[in-house]
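Sanity check

After download, print the first record. It should look like this:
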Amino acid sequence: MTMFPSGPAHVRTHATLFPTDAGVPVEQELSVLPEDLARALFITGRAPYDRAKHGRSSTYEWCHRVAVLPAYLSWSDDPVRRITRTDLARELDPSEKGMLSYTLGQAMCQLFAERQLSVQFFMHVARYASAYDLTFAPGQSRADFFGERTSGGYVVAEAKGRSGPLTNELREAMEEQKRTIKTIKGKAPKIAYASAVHFSSPHGPMRLTAIDPDEAAPGAIDLPVDPDLHVLAYYTPFLDAFAHQEPFMLGDYVVASFAALGVTLGVLAPVLKRVERAARRNEAEGLRNDILRLLARQRPRLEHTLYRDGILFAADWTIPEDRRRPGRRDSGALPGFLHEAFRSMDEEEDWRAEPVEEGDLDWRDLPAARGYVPGIFPRSDLLEG
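Expected structure tokens:
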């Protein structure tokens, strides 16, 4: 039995001051699965990119972030399903509540960017900067995140979180906030917004407010982004995860199962192969275009937890029968879909016939998934073959 009911929750968003041509509705209900938040928490993390510097600590860092979900959130059973905090979350002290709200603010900032603004490769500025030795002046303010719109141009974002209601003071500060990144690759960002996760009451649902101020601050910085290195930094955390947990093949995906955490993550094998080559052999030139081409070939399959960036994220957060609240329902629909999808995947995809160059890791040599895979194959089921 899953900790969260079948189907998504809905997070109410309120967006103001966005350009008319951005197409962002003022009021919207974002449909959010637990896996959506788990993936967002993974890809918005700051630390997990540099195995040489952080080693296994990077893996523990993202495990810590993702564990926020089963510990502190629940999907309510109201007529309109909402995301609320657990009793444990409400018992945290003010500092702990603030950290939880900020972490959720980062995840929802990513989901808003991806869903409402069609942003791809959304990641933390600090992760990109530290990977490629960009430095900022002491005390220099800058946005948290940046990413590229599929229609062209960059978006920058700052995430905030509140454990209580959104105050008038914070709303006014967000409206008056100036852009802290003046240009990316020499051009002004198309959109630079701030978003805040907040809760109307201790038992109330999670909400998101997003505001896009117009003007740049006097000390706004120029961010020299290389598109190929941006994409490399985006996918590198998966290399770290696979370095600390033995991967295996699941259809067209290389995946790692973190059973103790109840999480499975993965990347399309051809995407991972190209990223690994860029990382190990310093062949990053043309990476962005190569990845977009590979993703375009696979797009018809990227549904549910198979995301448009070629990432797989699935979760199985279970609780004993006697701890289930009245009205909780077992969620079999999504794992069932994935189960059948991976059983039916064509094993003769074009990428499998591509030659392996000298020095490449051959992901085709990995064993196939068998037995329990959190969020995909039930504990009692075995993958044949």
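If your output differs, re-run the checksum step. Summary of this record's structure: Confidence is low (pLDDT under 50) at residues 320-336, 381-385.
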